[in-house]
Design brief:
alpha/beta, two-stranded antiparallel sheet, 4-stranded parallel beta sheet, 10 helices, Rossmann fold, 6 strands, 281 residues, globular
């Protein structure tokens, strides 16, 4: 009888060990399955069409991922716009003309890469094909940006720039949230996707002028009724910073609701004059 009880106990412990391994090993099993699939059913990079040889779930090859041009170190301290050739005097803040005029409501904005070539195509994939592993890969890069800046990008909560409800219903997801959610997890911060909402849809026109871009977002965002924003440092996440108009409109809504500060964080940054002006920069 003792031997029977002993063998029964061993079997039970083995079964529990297998269950525990399966629970804890789901991530490992997913990686193994990805590796098997990549061997027997190889796919092509979604940008250059080279055959993918690694088992990572991001559908881009290593060459394309490495080709993303990082935002250079010489940049505007506020909006993060690259300032090539600018000579900074000792003790002087490096500010672009827009930030010298205090254009933006956000305290600071930073980006991972320049909005050009392969990055443009990668963001289009994220925006229109809901490739979540790519969003997670971008989130890792943005976490590196935050860690590099340290206290300058400190935040209490991560919020994605929202789509208008009709656009999100049509698309089925918000591409900014594909980045912000894994980023919040990386930074160990709360993720509040419903804190901010877009109250007015973007114009149907595909290409907007600078004037139209700024006008289309003016007053187009608001905090959701009942949301607690008071004294929060908000990390506002989007895919691309083009003129900064969208981040500015969101930041104004958050600041009016009581947010302490707003930091913009985007995957890519366009290098262009952000203001509706004919001046040469």
């Amino acid at each position: 009888m003792a031997d029977g009880n002993s063998s029964g106990g061993v079997a039970a412990r083995r079964r529990e060990g297998v269950r525990r391994w399966l629970r804890n090993g789901r991530g490992l099993l997913a990686e193994i399955s990805d590796a098997v699939v990549s061997i027997f059913f190889p796919s092509a990079c979604r940008i250059c069409e080279r055959l993918l040889t690694s088992a990572i779930r991001v559908p881009l090859c290593e060459e394309c991922l490495l080709s993303f041009a990082r935002v250079p170190k010489m940049l505007c301290e506020v909006c993060g716009r690259p300032q090539p050739g600018f000579t900074q005097k000792e003790g002087e803040a490096l500010l672009c003309p827009a930030c010298q005029e205090r254009t933006y409501a956000f305290e600071r904005a930073r980006s991972f890469a320049l909005y050009e070539e392969a990055v443009v195509r990668a963001i289009l994939l994220l925006k229109f094909e809901q490739i979540e592993p790519l969003g997670a890969w971008f989130a890792e890069r943005l976490a590196e940006v935050v860690n590099d800046e340290g206290a300058r990008l400190a935040a209490d909560v991560v919020v994605p720039v929202p789509l208008h409800r009709e656009r999100e219903r049509e698309r089925g997801y918000n591409q900014a949230a594909l980045i912000s959610k894994p980023l919040a997890k990386k930074l160990r911060l709360p993720h509040k996707a419903v804190l901010l909402m877009r109250t007015r849809a973007r114009p149907d026109k595909q290409v907007l002028s600078l004037e139209e871009r700024w006008e289309s977002v003016r007053g187009a965002f608001a905090t959701r009724p009942g949301s607690q924003v008071d004294n929060l440092r908000v990390l506002l996440v989007d895919d691309v910073l083009t003129t900064g108009a969208t981040l500015d409109a969101c930041a104004r809504a958050l600041r009016e609701a009581g947010a302490k500060s707003v930091i913009g964080l985007t995957v890519a940054r366009a290098v262009r004059n952000p203001l509706p002006s004919t001046r040469e920069w």
